[in-house]
Amino acid sequence: MNSLLDQLITWRRHLHQNPELSFQEYETQAYLWQQLERLDGIYLRKAANTGIIADLITDTAGPWIALRADMDALPMEETPERPYRSLYNGRMHACGHDAHMAILLGAIYLLYQQRAHWKGGIRCIFQPGEEKAPGGASLLLQEGILQEVPIQGIWGLHVTPQLPVGQIGLRSGAFMAASDEFSLILQGRGGHAAYPHLSRDLIAIGASLIMELQMVVSRAADPRSPTVLSFGQFQAGTAANIFPTQAHLRGTLRTFDEKWRQDARALIQRIVSHTATAWEIEAELTFLPGYPVLQNDPTLTALTRRWVVELLGEASTLEMPLWLGSEDFAFYSHVVPACFMRLGTGGEHPHTRLPVHTPAFDIDERGLEIGARLFAHIALRALAHFQAS
Ligand code: NI
Question: What is the DSSP string of 144-170?
Fold first, then answer.
C-alpha cells in the first residue's frame, strides 16, 4: 500500500518541479512516455502535439471507457520553499494537474497489474492545454480520440482544496459553468470635458452599458439557472479634462445552459448595438468562446456514486453545488457520457487548503492514492457494467 503512495509521490513531485505551460508540455510528455513504455503491451501514441493517448486493451471487442488527466501548469511564481518547489521561475503547477497525471499513471499501473481480471479497452488520455483556449480537449476531439473507438463513458477528476482528503464531490447534470470572454471597444468623438455637448462621453456610455448589461442577468436569465456577467477591465482616458476617443472593456460571461448561453450573447450584442446607434458611436463587441457547460451524465454519475461508496464508504461522497469555474473536460461531456469528480486534497497543512491558482497552493498527497485507486476501481466496475448491459 505504501509503495503505491511512494511511487505516486515520486511522480507527482517530479512533475511538480518541472512544470510546463499550456501546449508546451514536451518534457512532461517525455517523462510520462518513459513511465508508460515500461508496461509491455500498452499502446502509446502522441496526440495534440504534446499529449499522449495510452490504450490498455485486453479485448478489442470492447467495451471501451476513457480516463483523462490534464497536463499543463500556470504562468506564476511558486513562493514557498519546499523540497519539490518548481525549478523554473514563473511556472508553477498551481492547479494540481501534476497530481492528475500522477493519479492517472497510478491507475494505469493498477489496471495493468490486474489485466487478467478485466475485459475491454481503457483509453487513458494525458491532455495538454486545459488552462488555455481553445482547450486541449477540443483539439483531441478534432483528432477523433473519443470517436474512433466506441467509448461508453469518460471520467476525469480535479484536486479540490475545499474538500478534505477522502471526500469525493459529485454532481449530476450541469456541474461547471460555460465561460465566454468578451471584449468591447467603443470609439467616438473625443474633446474637452468642459463641453460634453460637443463630443461623446465614452466613459459615461461605457459605465451605463455596464449597468444596463446587468439587466441581462437580472431580467432575461432564468433565475433558476445562474448567470454571471462581470467586467474585469475598463480602460479609457489620459487626463481629468479630456474625453477619450476610445474605451476598452473586457469581461466574462458564465452560464449553465447552452441555449441560454447563445441567447445571452445575442442579447448583449443587441444592447451594445442599440446603445451605440443611439449615441452615434462605434462599438465593436467580440466574444472569445471558452468552454461549454460541463454536463455530468445522470446515469453514469449515479453508477459512479455507487462505486465510490463501494471503495471509500458511505461518508466519502457529497453532492457538490454548481461550480462557477469552467473546465475543458466539458467538451468531452458533449460527445460521450461523462462524469467529472472533485477529489478532496485538503489536509493538515494550511497550504493544502488554499485555493487553486494561488502561489502557495499545495495538496495533501494522500489524495493521490485515493485518486489512483478510485480511477482503477471505476474503470473495472464500468467495464464489467458495460459488458453485462
Ligand atoms: Ni485545473
Answer: TTTTTTTEEEEEEEEEEEEEETT-EEE
